[in-house]
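Work Package 3 (structural annotation) set out to generate three-dimensional models for the target panel prioritized at the project kickoff. During this period the team completed the workflow that converts sequence records into discrete structure tokens, so that structures can be stored uniformly alongside our sequence database. As a representative example, we reproduce one entry of 418 residues exactly as it appears in the project archive.
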Amino acid sequence: MSLLVYLVEDEAVAHFLPLVWTRPIFDLRLGVHTLWEKHRRYWGSRVEFRAWVRPFLARWTAETYGIEVNRWDVATEAVLWVNARWIPTEAQVRALRETRGPASWWAGSEWLALRLEGEAISRWDPHRWSPGQVPDSWPRIHWPEARLLRRLWELISIGALELDRELEAFPLGTVEGRLHGGVALLAPERVYIAPGAVVYPGTVLNAEGGPIVLDEGAEVGELAAIRGPCYIGPHSQVRMGALLYGGTSIGPVCKVGGEIAMSTFQGYANKAHEGHLGHAWIGSWVNLGAGTHNSNLKNDYHPVRIWDAVEGRFVDSGQQFLGLFAADHVKSGIGVTFNTGTVVGVGANVFGAGFPRTYLPSFSWGGAGGLSTYRLDRFLAMAERMMARRNRQLGDAERELLCYVFEATRSERTWEAR
């Protein structure tokens, strides 16, 4: 039986703004892999994927993933309509594949997946659907153990759990790359070094607290220290003397240095110099300047409050440790210090002394001394230059998307109305 799987964004993805202005939620990295990569691994090659995303992301998503987006012309025996916020496991995916007949799956009160067959497919209206469309006659399957991303800070808390779980799938205890003399391996049976990866002298890889994986082409400079669980993605560089603590996942083609703990880099981002980064999530094409720090613990030890785009206010995260959330194309100048739970929007350029606001709208220019707007033409020229340094181009779909985000976030830049 042929199977078509739609990854579907629902209204709750707005809780993850500004990170999801420039990508669908299934493109976010959570642990080693993005949600999309998890689905591809667990569903295998014998399904066709499509996506149903917010309209402004349709072109970028179609070109990036090479799939049909926001198109419903189904000629197949079965369709799975899957919540894009779902964090899949192999066992749960297997259960979905093996089910026959229309059915719905739920994680508490939130829908997780719907299986459509026969006439249910022809009657389905993807433009007007809601969980209330599900007929009462369909089997309703409850999965209390299933996990859906619900709030921004879960990219840190759940991401750490996913990192632990996914690192175990690598061939630990194997060194296929190159270790120079003077490298110390603690618990080497918990270390995997992929082909093309290299570790320079004086480095310590301590996997006693969890696995350490250096993926293909990764590089760790002299005198660095890495504690597991930790993942270094393909062709990323850990600079000399860097200190990486457990719970850290670095995506592909990044440069990282200084002190990093419990943080995730989406990929194609730099924090190459000294400075502390803790309990942070860093988007693509971000560059954090020398001496950039973030606080991840309040002096009074209270839970951290963080901006929520849906509620339009700061909300209690319930987390004692929470640092910086930087959307794509964020830049920080030398010595910038971000407070606990700071959220920075797409394309913001932050500089100057003092603590900037804990929510900086997209395309902000400035810092604690005041904000203005990063002109769109200058921003696009900068983005082109940065991407060219990594042999990537700012394509028409991405340019169009960034222009859309600039206009869509204009109301947040309240100084423009003065």
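The chain has a mean pLDDT of 95.
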